[in-house]
Amino acid sequence: MKVFSRTWIWSGAITAFLLALTSNLTEACERQCQLNVSHAFADKYQLLSSLHFSTLSTKIEQSLFHGVPTTAYSSTEATNAIQHLQEAVTNAQRAWDMPLFRTVFDTIFVDEPQFRGDCNEPHRVDQPALGVNWTMADCHAMDYICGNPPSICHFLPMIKTRIERKLAEQLETTIGGSSGIVGGGISENGGGSADEADVYANFLGPALSKIVMTHPKLEMYQATIHGNLNQIQEIVKDQIVVETSYLMPGAGPVKNEKWKAEWDLEIKLLLLSFP
Ligand SMILES: *[C@@H]1O[C@H](CO)[C@@H](O)[C@H](O)[C@H]1NC(C)=O
Ligand SMILES: *[C@@H]1O[C@H](CO)[C@@H](O)[C@H](O)[C@H]1NC(C)=O
C-alpha cells in the first residue's frame, strides 16, 4: 500500500513537471500532422508521375508496330496488343504509386536532417492558443530545423527538393532501368538497361510474351516490338532527366514547371493547421 501511494505521488509530481515544461514548449508536428503532410505531398507527386505513365501509354499506341509489316497483324490484333500493353502500364503505375506515401514520409521525417527536436533554442515562435492555427509569420520566423510545423513550413523548398530528387531517381530507374541524376550528373552507367527496369521486367515484358503467344504471326517480330518498347522507355526516361535538370548541382534558380505554386500554399496552410 505504501509503495503504491509513493508511486502515485511520484507520478503526480512527474506529470506536473511535464505539464509545466510543455506549456513553455511549442508542439511538434505530431503523428497526425506527419501523416497528413506526407499524404498531401504524395498526392501531388502521384499526379506528376502519372504524366510519365500517360506518355508511356500514348507512345505505345503511336509506335508499338514500327518496323512490323502490316501483313503481320490485323487491326483488331493491333488494337488488342496495344490495349494489353497499356493495361500493363496501368498496373506498373499502380505498383509505383503504392510506396509513394512511405517514401515521402521517410524523406521528411526519417532522412537527415530530421524535422525533430527542440524549437526553443533559440526561441522564435509562440505556441498558439488552443484551436488557433500557426501563422505565415511563424513560418517565416522559424528559421532553423526542429520539430514544429512552422519549421517544416519554413524549409518547404528544401523538403520539396529532397523528395523530388529521390522520387525522380526512382521513377527513372523504374521506367528506364537506371537514373541519369544519380550523383548529380548525367551518367550512362547508372546500372540497368531498359529490360531491367521494373516497368519492362514485371509488366511490359510479360505482356509482350503473352501477346506473341496468342498471335503467332507476330512471333518473328517479337524482337522488333521489344526494341520499340525499350525505345519508348528511353524516351520517357530522357523526358524525366530533362524535367528534373533543375535538381542538378549548379542548375541555378530553375524550378519544376509542373509543380504548381498554389500547392506550396496548400501544404503550408495544412502544416500550420496543426497547432
Ligand atoms: C488529416 O487526415 C485525416 C485522415 O485522412 C483527415 O480526416 C483530416 O481531414 C486531415 N486533416 C487535415 C487538416 O487535412
Ligand atoms: C486552420 O487552418 C485550416 C487550414 O487552412 C482552416 O481550414 C481552418 O479554418 C483554420 N482554423 C482556424 C481556427 O483559423
What do these coordinates show?
Helices cover 62% and strands 0% of the residues. With 275 residues, it is mainly alpha-helical. It has one domain (29-272). Helix 2 (31-63) packs antiparallel against helix 3 (75-97), helix 2 runs antiparallel to helix 10 (261-272) and helix 7 (156-176) runs antiparallel to helix 9 (222-243). The chain is elongated. Residues 1-28 form the signal peptide. Keywords: Signal.
Keywords, please?
275 residues, binds 2-acetamido-2-deoxy-beta-D-glucopyranose
Shape verdict: elongated
Strand content: under 5%
- Helical element count? 10
Low-confidence stretches: 1-10, 12-24, 183-187
In short:
Residues 1-28 form the signal peptide. With 275 residues, the chain is an all-alpha fold. The chain is 62% helix and 0% strand.
SSE blueprint:
Blueprint: H1 2-22, H2 31-63, H3 75-97, H4 100-109, H5 136-141, H6 149-154, H7 156-176, H8 198-214, H9 222-243, H10 261-272
Bound molecules: 2-acetamido-2-deoxy-beta-D-glucopyranose (2 copies).
